[in-house]
Structure formats: C-alpha cells, structure tokens
C-alpha cells in the first residue's frame, strides 16, 4: 500500500515539544504509532500528522516553527502528508517515525463530518439521544470545553439547510459543522497545549464505518444548545469523564 508521504522527509527536523528520557521517548513513539495504526487499519480513517504546541506562562509556541502561527498546535504539519485508511502497523510506524512528536489529526469530510457543540450541551444531548435510542457514532470531548459528534460525511455542507428545515436557522446556537478541508485532533493527542482530547463514546467496528446521518441528531442538539447558556463552558469537575 502506498503512502502519500513524498514530502515527509522535509519534516524530519521537527523538534519534539517535551524533553523525555530515551526510554520514555521510545515508548511514547511506539504508542503513537500504535494509535495511528488503530485509526487507519481498525477504524478505516485517514490520519495526518499535526503540529504540537507548548505553553510557557501566557506564551504558546508551535512546533511548525512559525513565530506568528495563527493556530499553534491545531493544524496539519503538511497538507500533502497523510497515512491512508487501511495502513498496517508496520506502514504507520515507518511513516510516523519521520515526524517524531507529531499530534494525530483526523481529516473531516471523508469518512465522517463533525457536529461541534459546547460540552455542557453535548453532555445533555448525549443522554437524551441515548434514552431515545437514536443511532450514535463516536463522540469526542476537547480540553477546552467542546463535544464533537461524528456523523455521516456531507453534514457540514448541509447544516444551514437542515437547520432551516427544522426551524432553527434564526436561533443563536453554539453549534457548527466541520467538513471537507478541516480536521479534528484525535484522542489522545494534545490540542493546542490545552490538554488531551478524549472519547465520550469511543469508536466501534459498527459506528466507525457507518456514522449516523446528521438529521437524526440535529433536532436534539439544536434544542439543547438553545436551552444552554450562550457562553461556552470550560472543562471542570462537573464535566464528563473521557475514555
């Protein structure tokens, strides 16, 4: 299986954010390769290496090296570099060994799109949807207080029309879609030096390849977002525990 990693050699000089002992560094790299292979070979998702951020007081620096990076630790290292769905552990290891310390990113608009809502609204909506027996896909939680519901691709482009049909088009909702040309940070990678992303509902063999249609979730998500406070909550003691 071929890799679209022709430009990956130019990234070999990327420095690792954290200073680790050699043994710990090897274990971290091995774990990262295993995680990448799980996403590609088990769940059937493409993976791209992402930049990492480090925080020192109020200052955040990005591993991309740009002094004025607009999104430290929250962007791909190179848009042409990816490990494709179906890649084995050996193939993922060969590719990821050339980008030490990279975050794991999942492109949206391919196997899935994402509906992004505030964490409090997402937690409440998840309980409602589970009680209603609505088919659900994986759900991730971010360290800065957002929930990502993975849904069938195309949802981001259809979102304005879907909200219009449901009567939510003129409501002030803390809800947006992520689709083609965008990405999410995959658990357990760090997101922009805020902390690791985690799963509220981890992927399974059934849900990874067949995420639900957005319309099945959107009514509940919109209603709960409308009822929730307009200010995005920050993670804290009352947030759900990610797995």
What does this structure look like?
- The chain is of the alpha+beta class and 243 residues long.
- The chain has two domains: 8-106, no CATH class; 113-227.
- It has six helices and ten strands.
- The strands form three sheets. Strands 8-5-7-6-10 form a five-stranded antiparallel β-sheet.
- Strand 6 and strand 7 form a beta hairpin.
- The longest helix has 21 residues, at 22-42.
- Residues 1-20 and 231-241 have low confidence and may be disordered.
- It comes from Streptomyces diacarni.
- This is DNA primase.
- Residues 36-218 form the DNA primase/polymerase bifunctional N-terminal domain.
Describe the structure in brief.
Pfam families: Prim-Pol (PF09250). InterPro entries: DNA_primase/pol_bifunc_N. This protein has 243 residues and is an alpha+beta fold.
Q: Which stretches are low in confidence, meaning pLDDT under 50 for 5 or more residues running?
A: 1-20, 231-241
Note the main sheet: 5 strands, antiparallel
What is the helix/strand order?
HEEEHEEHEEHEEEHH
Q: What is the gyration radius calculated from CA atoms?
A: 18 Å
Strand order of the largest sheet: 8-5-7-6-10
C-alpha geometry: globular
Question: What share of the residues does DSSP label as strand, in percent?
Answer: 15-25%
Fraction of residues in H or I helices: 25-40%
Number of domains: 2
- Enumerate how many helices there are, as a single number: 6
Beta strand count: 10
Structural class comes to alpha+beta
The average pLDDT value, as a whole number, equals: 86
Distance between the termini: 31 Å
């Amino acid at each position: 299986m071929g890799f679209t990693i022709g430009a990956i050699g130019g990234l070999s000089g990327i420095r690792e954010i954290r200073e680790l002992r050699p043994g710990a560094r090897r274990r971290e790299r091995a774990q990262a390769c295993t995680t990448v292979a799980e996403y590609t070979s088990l769940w059937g998702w493409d993976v791209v290496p992402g930049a990492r951020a480090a925080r020192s007081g109020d200052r955040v620096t990005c591993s991309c090296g740009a002094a004025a990076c607009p999104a430290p630790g929250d962007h791909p290292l190179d848009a042409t570099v990816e490990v494709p769905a179906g890649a084995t552990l050996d193939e993922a290891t060969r590719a990821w060994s050339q980008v030490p310390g990279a975050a794991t990113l999942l492109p949206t608009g391919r196997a899935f799109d994402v509906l992004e809502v505030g964490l409090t609204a997402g937690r409440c909506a998840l309980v409602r949807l589970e009680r209603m027996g609505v088919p659900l896909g994986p759900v991730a939680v971010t360290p800065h207080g957002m929930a990502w519901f993975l849904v069938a691709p195309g949802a981001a482009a259809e979102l304005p029309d879907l909200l219009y049909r449901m009567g939510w088009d003129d409501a002030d909702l803390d809800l947006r879609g992520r689709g083609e040309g965008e990405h999410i940070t995959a658990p357990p990678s760090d997101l922009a030096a805020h902390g690791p992303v985690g799963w509220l509902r981890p992927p399974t063999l059934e849900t990874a390849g067949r995420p639900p249609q957005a319309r099945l979730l959107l009514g509940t998500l919109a209603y709960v977002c409308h009822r929730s406070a307009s200010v995005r909550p920050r993670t804290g003691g009352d947030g759900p525990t990610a797995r």
